Amino acid sequence: MQLFNLKVSSDEVSFAEAVKKGLGKEQGLYFPKSITPFDDIDALLALPFVERSSKILQQLIGDEIKPEVLSRLVEQAFTFPAPIANVEEGVYCLELFHGPTLAFKDFGARFMAQCLSELSKGQKITILTATSGDTGAAVAHAFHGIENIEVVILFPKGKISPLQEKLFSTLGGNVHTVAIESDFDACQQLVKTAFDDPDVREGLHLNSANSINISRLMAQICYYFEAFSQLSPEERANTVVSVPSGNFGNLTAGMFAKVLGLPVKRFVAATNLNDTVPRYWSTGDWLPNLTQATMSNAMDVSQPNNWPRIEALFEQGYLDRSILSAVSIDEEYTQLAMKCLANVGYVSEPHAAVAYKALKRELHEGETGIFLGTAHPAKFRDTVENVLGQPIHLPEALVEVADKESLSVPLANDYEQLKQHLFSILEP
Ligand SMILES: *Cc1c(COP(=O)(O)O)cnc(C)c1O
């Protein structure tokens, strides 16, 4: 598979290089040089999830990874299902939260971990990343126990919920967690400084496991096919998909699925109050505002970093602009949507609720709708219990870690101390 940089088109790389590098020159995103659609979608949809996903990824990646190797990577990454739940007549939630950290980011992070481990062939790598919650947990779990890869996660001490912290700080082994006595921005700054420091970058072979990594997007394409495989043939021809969006990686993956031949009728880009894309879609002007804090905080993004890939899909003629609509849902309607869903017997969380509400606005008579459930309601327990006024059930994964001890090491917001700490744990 060849990819090129959307900012510097002469910067071309293989899949292996794109996975290892993440971003290209001038922070440009990698994009496939060509995409070949499948001829027989029905045959593909008839296959079981893991087998079908291997075929999809093989079609994209080509002969850079042997089919039997790729099948093994997919099998180790996709160890949990992606069912659709029928929440009301003609409306389904694609539940992407049955993985180890209860959010859809498990799919991308786990496949990326498998790819990096395979493609780096024995070379030691250190994943260094800052998190305000979700991403860190997904990355930590994905890389836990993988040979030759060490993971260091920085998070702001006391600024994430204790349960969320325990999801990644209790793993141990090759996963090292550091509680920085400051905020998330300070953690991000420390990571940036480390990447700019050649001693650390080269000495420890740093990699960021960033969310713009092409391997993550590719993994996410697979669950759109999995959703359609569960629909009847009549429904498949008439289905609209609504995606709760922050950095727009998830929607980008859905659009790649369509380019590969999945018969999605339209997409709805659902955002919270951070509505850069919906405003751009109606006015043609790209005018990001300051980011606002909302209940659906994983989507509090005003400069979505995957948008250039979506723009490229339109510009290069893969898709027509008419297949996308964009809707912003405010806080009041998010709460109302959660209540509506609870009334029909489906407890949901704010991100999925934004997508559900946006879907209801855009769905026409006779169409089937799917909205993406990106996180388990228990991950946003306080908000969900507040809005619905009822206690919610904690899934096994959270109950198990609640009693375990956090292995985090506290550190001041000081780069030299962090550097010393990194070398002491990684090169003792
Ligand atoms: C990351 C995240 C999103 C946003 O996904 P993007 O790919 O960044 O658009 C939505 N919901 C939840 C729960 C998330 O963690």
Task: Tell me about this structure.
This protein has 428 residues and is of the alpha/beta class. The protein has a domain of 200 residues: Rossmann fold (3-Layer(aba) Sandwich). It is built from 19 helices and 14 strands. It has a 6-stranded mixed β-sheet, sandwiched between helices. The chain has a 5-stranded parallel β-sheet with strand order 9-6-7-8-14, with helices on both faces. The protein is globular, with a radius of gyration of 21 Å.
Give a brief description.
The chain is of the alpha/beta class and 428 residues long. It has helices spanning 15-21, 41-45, 49-61, 67-77, 105-119, 134-143, 162-169, 184-196, 198-203, 214-229, 233-236, 249-259, 276-283, 307-315, 331-343, 350-362, 381-388, 396-402, 415-426; strands at 2-5, 12-14, 30-32, 84-88, 91-95, 125-130, 149-156, 175-180, 206-207, 239-244, 266-271, 324-328, 368-373, 409-411.
Describe the secondary-structure layout:
Blueprint: E1 2-5, E2 12-14, H1 15-21, E3 30-32, H2 41-45, H3 49-61, H4 67-77, E4 84-88, E5 91-95, H5 105-119, E6 125-130, H6 134-143, E7 149-156, H7 162-169, E8 175-180, H8 184-196, H9 198-203, E9 206-207, H10 214-229, H11 233-236, E10 239-244, H12 249-259, E11 266-271, H13 276-283, H14 307-315, E12 324-328, H15 331-343, H16 350-362, E13 368-373, H17 381-388, H18 396-402, E14 409-411, H19 415-426
Parallel strand pairs: 5-13, 6-7, 6-9, 7-8, 8-14, 10-11, 10-13, 11-12
Antiparallel strand pairs: 1-2, 1-3, 4-5
Helix pairs in contact: 3-4, 3-10, 4-5, 5-6, 5-10, 6-7, 7-18, 10-12, 12-14, 15-16
The chain binds pyridoxal-5'-phosphate (PLP).
